[in-house]
Structure formats: structure tokens, C-alpha cells
Recover the amino acids of this structure.
């Protein structure tokens, strides 16, 4: 196995998911949860001579790790999968897979929480369009229901405090105050 192989290729994973970082992190966390203890599961299967079951497990691991950019696990699982097709994998290949899975899980466990891993700037136009529509509704003194307000706030880059201030201003029909807050955060 190549020594400098990247453990997780985040750029590849993001390309696979059209740049959706929050989805990538969610899928990586799910991957880590599912395969965190693969070493014990796989060793038990091989010891019980459940080679077909072990091959299915490693084949699935290979596919998922490859799609998410978990390169080291993908390369090792590819080798172990081939060995399982022909009988039993050798101890060195299995150990390499387990070590790289451990490193991969460690990288995933160190990912930032959901708040700091928010989806990348959703389409910049979406932000501008939401801002423009929100300002227009406020300037025209239109009734803004909770659903519309929530949708607009979700599309704007606002702090929780700013969201709370705008929500308070809109619900108390102080549209001038809401406009002032929005003007201060306009890109």
C-alpha cells in the first residue's frame, strides 16, 4: 500500500456530493459508526469460516469507502475483497485494513460539529434573491407568515442573535427595525 495515500480525500467526497459539506460529514459519520468495529466483525467471520459473509461485508465497505473518498480503506478493502474471493485473506492485508480503518475513523471523529460544517454557501444567488425578496416584502408592508420568515432566515447568513432580532421585529410588525438589521448584514 502506498505510504502517502490520503486517509480521507475531502475534495473528492465533496465532488461526489455536489459540494454539500454537511451531507459529506453526515455520511462520513454514518460510515464511521457502521464500520468502527469491522476488525472484530471480520475476524469473527473469517474464524467461523463465513467467507461469503466476510466477502459481502468487505465488498460493501469497499464501495462505500470509495464513494466517500476514504482512500486508504478503499485500497485495503479492495485487496482483502479479492483475497476473500479466493479463500482467506492474509493477516498482513487484514491488519493494514484495520489500521487504516482506525485512522479513518479518527479523522472522521475529529470533524467539526454540524454548526461549523454547515453546507457550503448554498448558491450565492439564492442568498441575494432571499435578501431582495425579504427586503421588498418588508418595504411593501406585506404580511410575512412564519413559514416564509423561516425560509428567508435560513437562506441568509445571519447570526442566531440577528435571526432572533429580525423575528422579533417582524412578529411585532416593526418592519423598519427588521429593515435596519437586514441592511447591516447585506453583502
Amino acid at each position: 500500500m502506498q505510504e502517502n495515500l490520503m486517509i480521507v480525500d475531502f475534495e473528492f467526497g465533496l465532488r461526489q456530493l455536489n459540494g454539500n459539506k454537511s451531507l459529506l460529514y453526515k455520511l462520513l459519520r454514518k460510515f464511521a459508526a457502521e464500520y468502527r468495529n469491522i476488525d472484530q466483525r471480520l475476524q469473527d467471520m473469517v474464524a467461523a469460516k463465513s467467507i461469503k459473509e466476510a466477502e459481502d461485508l468487505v465488498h460493501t465497505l469497499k464501495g462505500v469507502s470509495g464513494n466517500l473518498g476514504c482512500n486508504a480503506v478503499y485500497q485495503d478493502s479492495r485487496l482483502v475483497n479479492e483475497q476473500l474471493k479466493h479463500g482467506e485473506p492474509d493477516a498482513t492485508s487484514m491488519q493494514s485494513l484495520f489500521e487504516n480503518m482506525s485512522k479513518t475513523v479518527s479523522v472522521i471523529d475529529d470533524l467539526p460539529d454540524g454548526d461549523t460544517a454547515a453546507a457550503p454557501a448554498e448558491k450565492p444567488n439564492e442568498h441575494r434573491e432571499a435578501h431582495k425578496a425579504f427586503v421588498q416584502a418588508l418595504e411593501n408592508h406585506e404580511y410575512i407568515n412564519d413559514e416564509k420568515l423561516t425560509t428567508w432566515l435560513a437562506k441568509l447568513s445571519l447570526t442566531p442573535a440577528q435571526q432572533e432580532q429580525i423575528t422579533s421585529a417582524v412578529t411585532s410588525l416593526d418592519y423598519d427595525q427588521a429593515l435596519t438589521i437586514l441592511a447591516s448584514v447585506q453583502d
User: Anything to note?
Assistant: The chain has two domains: 10-109, 124-185. The chain has ten helices and no strands. Residues 62 and 74 are 5 Å apart (CA to CA).
